Amino acid sequence: MEEYLNKEFFEWVDCVAGILKDAEKQATIVYHNDADGICSSAILSRVCEYFGLKTELICIEKVNPDIIEIIHADRDGIIIYTDLAGLAAEAIDRINAGRGKVIIIDHHPAKEIESDSVFVLNPELSGISGDIFVSASTLNYIFFRAIAGDEAEKCAYLAVVGSVGDYHDRYGGVLGFDRFALNEAMRMKQVKIMIDGMKERYYIDFFGEYADVVAERLTTLGAVGYEEKGYQLGLKACFEGFNGATMEIVKRLERIREEKFEKMVEFLKTNLKQEKHVQWFHIGDSFSPMGVKVVGEFCELIKDMTFVDDSKYLIGFQSMPKVVPDLGEIDWNVVKMSGRVPTPLERKIFKGEAPGLDYLVPKASEIVGAFADATHKIAAATIVDGGKEEEFIEAFERLVENEVSGG
Ligand SMILES: [Mn+2]
């Protein structure tokens, strides 16, 4: 790994590894319910095993203060957040109030934090784009690699699946640190590259399948099967492969999603709300029992459909279910917001001619007192209080307006 010049980044890896090394007996891993999150938790569970820690795994869709409260209320030992919480370090530090050590291993945009108990491992903080060069799985892999050396190499294929799950192969193949993990996986003969048109595809020997296919299965289990804890099957598959029963469940979940999506597309053809810069919709709980990650997938699916205006941002809301499967019932009224952009607008954003969602969503969230955690330039999510949806849209509109008129 030394061939990379980002010394500061690797010093952090060492520092955070030191904290985990000192952890006592118990660790809690809080992870995101998509392919990258599931692969991250798989690698991290190996890390904890390596240190002889007993681990509890908690899969969540979104970080928010209510969830942080519950997680930190009565858990001993170290708590590790991964593939989420980039921007939540301050909130976590405040709620944790020095009770125990916390590590946040994430690749989403993050804020620097001064704390004796919360430590952030995030490439964004040393100027490396986590959206392009490092998936959470890769980050966890590098972390494991720094700790355990060769022992970690067995997990290299999981970093590849996680990276592809977050579409880090979108420029034709995975790059940077993701590429480093890929190279290791190839050296270990876990992965072969196939060139398919404009893109590389990574055949994972262990699964007998391509990384994109595996990633999709994991995300289906985690997101569409969220309320029935499908992510646990995904995690199991990371080390045992997909058996017949798991594949049946994947197929059933895919059918549920397809039916719900088709219905919603038909509805939106005449019901998409239009503002000056934004077009939006509210699903309510009609996607239940699917998790709220699905509204993002749905936006992704429709963003270039003909009934969608290709010059406007696309925003969808979905009510958060009142049960977090690994934590129980939560008394809240919150709504997940997902933002995407049609391809022509995406180009403008990358050329710097229009503001990206990584600016707009955290800003608009702040204005309505909400909590953004996963934000990229062309895809972002936040949670707002139920009833604040229109206020959010108005704030978002104003922000775009200011950027456009202010130049
Ligand atoms: Mn990720």
From TrEMBL:
Gene3D superfamilies: 3.90.1640.30
Record's protein name: DDH domain-containing protein
Organism in which the protein naturally occurs: Archaeoglobus sulfaticallidus PM70-1
Stored Pfam families: DHH
Record domain DDH: where: 28-148
Domain of life: Archaea
MF terms (GO), sorted A to Z: exonuclease activity
SUPFAM superfamilies found in the cross-reference section: DHH phosphoesterases (SSF64182)
